Amino acid sequence: MAANCVAIGKRYTSAASVTVSVGGFVPKPFTPFQWFGQNTLEELNRKVHMLKDEVRKNKGVKLKWHDPKATLVEGILSRGDRRLGEVLKRVWSSGGTFQEWSEYFDLDLWLSAMEKKI
Prior knowledge:
The chain is mostly helical and 118 residues long.
């Protein structure tokens, strides 16, 4: 679809391009999607690599993606209860600031905080 959009744009300008932004599916509670499982980290990575391979074939198409590791944590936070407050506190006390910024995100920090008994 993105390649078709670029082709249409090229009719009007040679600089036509399309940026495709994707993120992993996070089933949120209290929605019809709450009954669906979230992909594993391996599956999310596989899908990103598949999309990257496809985009390489199409000049004029750029791909942006949400970090699969951050998507995994987002899924846990969206389905958790008040006990996750302790996990958040552990991440923060372990130096986990600005975790929403990809350059500061540290999955190991989150996994370590979640491994300890709540």
